[in-house]
Amino acid sequence: MSNVTGDTHLADGVKRYLSEYPGEIICVRQIWYEGLEGCGVPSPEQMEIMTSAVKSLPGWKDIGDFRYEKFGVQPSFKRGNTPGDPVRSGKIMVQHMFELGSLFKTPDGKVLKVVVSEVYNIRCFEIADGHMTGPMIKFKPQDDFAKSLVKIEN
Fold first, then answer.
1. Domain for residue 115, yes or no?
2. Domain presence at residue 59
């Protein structure tokens, strides 16, 4: 759904994206870029349409401003548990479990260091002989791989 602009079409796109969104926290810019494949900066009118669409959905509540790596400080929403909401399969691991600089052991014994921790993406490098090595490893906090990691306490 590329560069959506119509009021109804835009609001429907927001609702459709959030019905499939696996996370618990989101901002309208994330919806615009990642969910609706919007191009450029959304207009104030488009931001208002998307914000109203999120506010109209049961189970989403306004949590005020929240800082995102990609989008800066943005008004944000959190999925809440309200009566009648469908039960979601599995729980998402929250961002604070992957603090910057923390170390995790993989099932195969490798040690990873977190270099970027976002609500939707975690990025790490393997640590070998005290140095970061190899390509960056990127995963979503709700992936099975993320759930298999064991934090190494300092």
1. yes
2. yes
Secondary structure letter of residue 36 according to DSSP: S
Backbone φ and ψ for 3, nearest 5 degrees, come out as 50, 55
Please, is 59 exposed, middle or buried when counting C-beta atoms within 10 Å of its C-beta (0-12, 13-18, 19+)? middle
pLDDT tens digits, residue range 10-54? 999 999 999 888 888 889 998 998 888 888 889 999 999 999 999
* Enclosing domain of residue 53: 7-79
pTM over 0.70: no
User: What's the distance, Cα to Cα, between the start and end of the chain in Å?
Assistant: 46
How many C-alpha atoms does 31 have within 13 Å on its Cβ side?
Answer: 32
- Name the 3-class secondary structure at 95: helix
> Is 11 inside any structural domain?
yes
What count of residues does the chain have? Answer: 154
The rounded distance, in Å, linking the Cα atoms of 50 and 31 is: 8
